[in-house]
Design a protein that fits this description.
- The protein is mainly α.
- The chain has one domain.
- It is about 75% helix and about 5% strand.
- It is built from 8 helices and 2 strands, in the order αααααββααα.
- The protein has a two-stranded antiparallel sheet with strand order 1-2.
- Strand 1 and strand 2 form a beta hairpin.
Length: about 220
């Protein structure tokens, strides 16, 4: 079924190409451009285990690692590097995808691991950036500015993602384990998201879900 990996590459290329086009037209800039890619490409990748073999996802992630590193030095794709602060989040996210695919977890665990970054972290950054100046309490972690409303957004989104994964994964037979996961995982994720500066949270968050969810299900 060669059309499936071809479709996966085409979807991600369409998202990246669309982001670059919108960036050059000055429709999206800065954090908005990065998170546009972050959210859409991440959601596409999160769905892949449901219709694509993990081996293909690993190969896809390896290609993404090479391209992101190349882009950091040659900057041929500018939409993904349109913020001034130093970040290797795109490369680390691709590394996280490779590790998750290599472990070959339950499809819903993989989905939750990727969505913690793409939706949770992505929406937290957008909300924090757009509303933080009006409704957010600012605090700094390792000289990186965070907002309370952004952190709250992450917790809310990751709670919904965790609830969907817990319900559909079939890993949880005890209600107490499911309830503990629903409480502990979003809070632990928020703590990692807060301290994961320079894009390190893009690696730590998926690994947290990948390790913690199966353990909490026992």
């Amino acid at each position: 079924m060669l059309w499936r990996p071809i479709l996966a590459v085409a979807i991600v290329c369409f998202i990246l190409g669309g982001a670059e086009f919108l960036w050059r037209k000055n429709v999206i800039r800065g954090e908005g451009a990065r998170k546009f890619i972050h959210i859409l490409a991440g959601c596409a990748v999160a769905s892949m285990p449901f219709w694509l073999d993990y081996g293909w996802i690993m190969l896809f992630a390896l290609g993404a690692i090479v391209l992101s590193l190349f882009n950091h030095y040659h900057r041929f794709f500018k939409a993904g590097l349109s913020v001034k602060r130093r970040s290797y989040g795109d490369t680390l996210f691709a590394v996280a995808i490779f590790i998750c695919a290599m472990v070959q977890p339950n499809e819903w665990v993989f989905l939750a691991a990727i969505l913690f970054v793409s939706l949770g972290d992505g929406l937290a950054a957008l909300v924090g950036t757009s509303l933080g100046h009006y409704h957010g309490v600012f605090y700094k972690v390792l000289r990186h500015e965070k907002t309370a409303i952004g952190t709250a957004t992450f917790i809310l989104v990751s709670f919904v993602v965790t609830a969907v994964a817990v319900y559909y994964s079939g890993l949880f037979t005890a209600n107490v384990n499911a309830a503990l996961t629903l409480i502990a995982l979003p809070i632990a994720g928020a703590m990692l998201e807060t301290v994961g500066v320079y894009g390190l949270d893009n690696l730590l968050l998926p690994l947290l879900v990948l390790i913690a969810m199966p353990l909490l299900a026992k």
